[in-house]
Design brief:
heterodimer; A: 320 residues; mainly alpha; two-stranded antiparallel ribbon; B: 295 residues; ABC transporter involved in vitamin B12 uptake, BtuC; 11 helices; 4 strands
Chain lengths: 320, 295
């Protein structure tokens, strides 16, 4: 009885700390355009959503996908193509990109969960590389040029996204909506089963859970959210290019999540802002960016496995 | 000269030979990955970068020390293998008790550092490395022209692969190695220095990658990116073959090289992706891999 009561207060405290952190985040993001360039913030928000999507898989199911650029990049291509060539409004363009990512996620996830552990990472990486070659060969992606000058259009026929402020609000709302949805998924009964699989898959199977179905659904959800991020990014930058589907992009999203904190709610957001800011300052040093990224990987893995938010949560003894 | 399905024998066998050569590199690299994974439980993402380091060592030896190919094939694997040993002692040894994925992430970071550094100094374009004088020229076999160097690459890598297989599967040292893969604690209890064996295994796997790099130098150009995409293909090869068997890695490597070569002849558009397609098919039919022992 007493233990249950303790657990309940601990749970309440946890919700409390997460709610406060969420409000701080929203406040910061609403005020941020006064201090930073909107395009920079929108880029960071798209990557933050991408990292949250990736974290859903690695942080809560323990599956390392090394091919998430596949969903991000292909959603970005389809959304750009829909907006530019088909001339559909932005909400439908993002939806088309997201649907593409969901379909690709079902196929890739279905294949990759047939093997466990380290093979999972290699399979996702290989499939992403295969789709990268498709992106080079398919005419509609325009090869090295990418799809350029994508029109942002009018959201719901009302809000002109060519206006930077409107675009920022749209990106912010998309990000917050998906963030809350991911929070809901993680804290649902479904999310609890995912965590059980992460901790001990054999045990979850013995308890009667069809873990493959849970893993597949988690994979599809993660791919879908990555798709939302990619599709939105295509509208923000009015560009979809090979960079978004190539393997360094998959590495980058891993880096963001790792730096922020695997399996923490806010870690991917903090990590994405950290990495995007860093790259913003490092644009002048050319190829050294990769060296810096690599060094951060090594340092994080050896000394700093909890990440920024994980360490902070540990320090304050709260859950973030 | 004769034709098969409207394709000249020259083109067909030429591509088959290229396939065999690529297959040699796949075999050497996936062998190294499998040996390292067996002992360290780490997927060595740095493998592609270490292959590139082998090729660059050969290039440096020629350029700055005047030492040619034959020295390079001896020195480069030792030198790069030594850096591998340093990496294992300094970095990897702290990860053995953690989840596999940390090893993958650390070696991925190392690959970014090494390849980024080389790209800074040498750009993206390749540097030429010439075929050693002893192996220049070639033989006309009637149905195709066989350059001597390419024949050497196929024969020598096959010999290296088979020697490795023999050492691991048929000698006392190999028996220790296999035992330590199964149960390191028990093997240590018998008085065998397992940590040193792990270090040397990593050095050996890395040396194999460097050896492949030296052999690749005269065929492809020496460039900082030469290993980055190759390592992803080799991962697919490893998924197809499964890492449980040494011979499996060798057979899969050569076999996929040949399949890739044939695809270049009959359906060139798919030559980049055929190995990944094979991987998908294998995952659907035999999820554990062709030579895998369970997942």
């Amino acid at each position: 009885m007493q233990r249950a009561a303790e657990a309940k207060t601990a749970g309440a405290a946890r919700v409390h700390s997460e709610a406060i952190a969420f409000l701080i985040m929203v406040g910061a993001l609403v005020l941020a355009p006064m201090f930073a360039y909107p395009v920079f913030l929108m880029k960071a928000l798209c990557f933050a959503l991408f990292a949250c999507a990736f974290n859903l898989l690695i942080g809560y199911v323990g599956l390392l996908s090394f091919g998430h650029a596949l969903f991000f990049g292909w959603a970005s291509y389809v959304s750009a193509h829909a907006a530019k060539v088909w001339g559909v409004p932005p909400e439908l363009a993002v939806l088309a990109g997201t649907a593409t990512a969901a379909v690709l996620g079902t196929i890739v996830g279905g294949l990759a969960i047939r093997r466990q552990g380290i093979y999972f990472a290699m399979i996702t990486l290989a499939l992403a590389q295969m789709m990268y070659f498709f992106a080079i060969q398919t005419p509609f992606t325009h090869g090295e040029d990418g799809i350029q000058a994508v029109p942002r259009g009018k959201l719901f026929g009302l809000f002109d996204l060519a206006d930077q402020a409107n675009m920022y609000i749209a990106v912010l709302l998309i990000f917050l909506g998906c963030f809350l949805l991911i929070y809901r998924i993680i804290n649902s009964p479904f999310g609890e089963v995912l965590k059980a699989i992460r901790e001990n898959e054999m045990r979850a199977i013995s308890l009667g859970y069809k873990t493959d179905r849970y893993k597949l659904l988690a994979f599809v959800l993660s791919a879908t959210f990555a798709g939302v991020a990619g599709a939105t990014k295509a509208l923000v930058f009015q560009l979809a290019s090979l960079t978004d589907v190539d393997w360094p992009m998959s590495g980058e999203v891993i880096l963001m999540t790792l730096v922020g904190g695997l399996g923490t709610l806010f870690g991917p957001v903090a990590g994405a802002f950290f990495v995007v800011t860093l790259e913003n300052y490092l644009t002048t040093i050319g190829q050294w960016v990769f060296v810096v990224q690599g060094a951060i990987f090594v340092i994080c893995v050896l000394l700093f496995r909890r990440g920024i938010i994980g360490e902070l949560a540990q320090l304050l003894r709260i859950k973030l | 000269m004769f034709e098969v399905l409207g394709i000249s024998s020259q083109a067909l066998f030429g591509q088959l030979l290229i396939g065999l050569i690529n297959g040699s590199f796949y075999a050497l690299l996936s062998l190294g990955l499998a040996v390292i994974f067996g002992m360290l439980n780490i997927i060595n993402f740095t493998h592609g970068a270490q292959y590139m380091l082998g090729a660059f060592t050969a290039y440096f030896l020629l350029r700055y020390a005047g030492l040619g190919y034959w020295w390079a094939i001896l020195v480069a694997p030792l030198a790069v293998g030594a850096t591998g040993i340093a990496i294992e002692r300094l970095l990897l040894q702290w990860l053995y008790k953690l989840d596999h994925l940390y090893g993958l992430l650390l070696t991925f970071g190392l690959a970014l550092i090494i390849e980024g550094t080389f790209r800074n100094f040498f750009g993206s374009s390749g540097l030429p490395y010439s075929v050693p004088p002893e192996l220049q020229g070639g033989q006309n076999l009637g149905f195709m022209f066989m350059p001597n160097y390419r024949a050497w690459v196929v024969v020598f890598s096959l010999a290296v692969c088979l020697t490795t297989w023999f050492v691991i599967e048929r000698t006392r040292l190999g028996a220790y190695l296999r035992a330590a893969t199964e149960n390191p604690t028990l093997v240590r209890a018998f008085g065998i220095n397992v940590p040193r064996m792990i270090t040397l295994t990593y050095g050996f796997g890395v040396a194999l990658a460097a050896l492949a790099g030296v052999m690749a130098a005269p065929i492809y150009n020496v460039s900082p990116q030469m290993g980055a995409n190759l390592v992803i293909v080799v991962f697919a090869v490893v998924v197809i073959g499964g890492m449980g068997s040494i011979m499996g890695a060798i057979v899969t490597g050569f076999g996929l090289g040949i399949i890739e070569g044939l695809t270049k002849v009959f359906f060139p558009e798919a030559s980049n992706t055929v190995i990944f397609v094979v991987m998908v098919v294998v995952l659907l039919i035999r999820p554990a891999g062709l030579f895998g022992r369970g997942a």
